[in-house]
Amino acid sequence: RRRLAPLNEDNGRFLLLAALIAAYLSAGATVFSALESPSEAAAQLRWNRTLHNFSRIFNISLPELRAFLRSYEAAMAAGIRVDALRPRWDFPGAFYFVSTVVSTIGFGMTTPATVAGKVFLIVYGLFGCAGTILFFNLFLERIISLLAFIMKACHERQLRRSGLLPPNFRRGTAMSGVGSLVGWKPSVYHVMLILGIFAITLSCCASAMYTAVEGWNYVDSLYYCFVTFSTIGFGDLVSSQNAAYQNQGLYRFGNFIFILMGVCCIYSLFNVISIVIKQVLNWVLKKFECRCCPKCHKSSARLGRRNAITPGARLRRHNISMDADGQYDSDTEGRRLSGEMISMRELTASNKVSLAILQKQLSETANGYPRNVCINTRQNGFSAGVGALAIMNNRLAETSDSR
Asked: Which residues span the membrane (predicted)?
């Protein structure tokens, strides 16, 4: 009877992360329910008491009063306020709206009311959000490259001070093969620390501006910065909504720059943190694998000891067809399936593949682009990940060795 194959590493990581996210959501819901539910119940009780007192004092029936309040809520949803506010759909207001759409912030204080506007928003957001996500990924790639350049310069300076690097060393010279610099990449933890410090500094500066201009307290300003920069965008606090400000043009420009840089920085930080979470998941999976490894892999380990060189398996990993018409004699096929003997044809083709890989690596190294030797050539264009995850895998040290 066939046994179910064990989950591979990617599927195991995915299921473990899904379970952890479900537990995280449940824990967060429990905490917020305990913190906010009493306040909500008390506010509802005060509102009902105020509503009945107002109806009794001014001799207005409750149905009429509730109908008036529903009209007021509809006016608020349309952007109408008692105090004077700036127009929502002039060009600056519309530009602010589309900026929150493509960045997925979505405050919700401005929404299209016409059918044509809603239809246009669907098409506009489809391409706008895709382009903005691409911009965030390109920003991540460049900020990681900049941090890698700076950290490598600091690493070389430290090596010079310790005497492990010649004083006349220059990048790109023939001496670039120094053992301490071959394949060097910045640490993901150092990058996370630098991005975290930059994000905190940016949030503190932006909060100081919002406290001075909007009149919020500093904690509310910090809360607004996190909600906005992380693209959560609740909409309970929204900047630049009053009718007039002192130095209004300068404030709007500063608000735009802070939001743009904050979203890019927090997006990069989130991706670095996700890599750290992935490493924790890999560590947990290895702990589980160590417990079940003697039972699950006993038979495969025994076969591996019988014949250490199996060109047939290597060629299957490289997806190379050994014969154009697919015809094999029974003796060759039997040897390939058993893994006991080596076919000369398979060994020759395997050597050709290894020689081609070696020539490519030597060419890249000679042109100044040294790469780590990769034995497993099974990977295709998507094997290292797509988007931000692939960028981090290619540029940071701890992630490149995890696969």
From this structure: 94-112, 119-140, 188-210, 222-244, 256-277
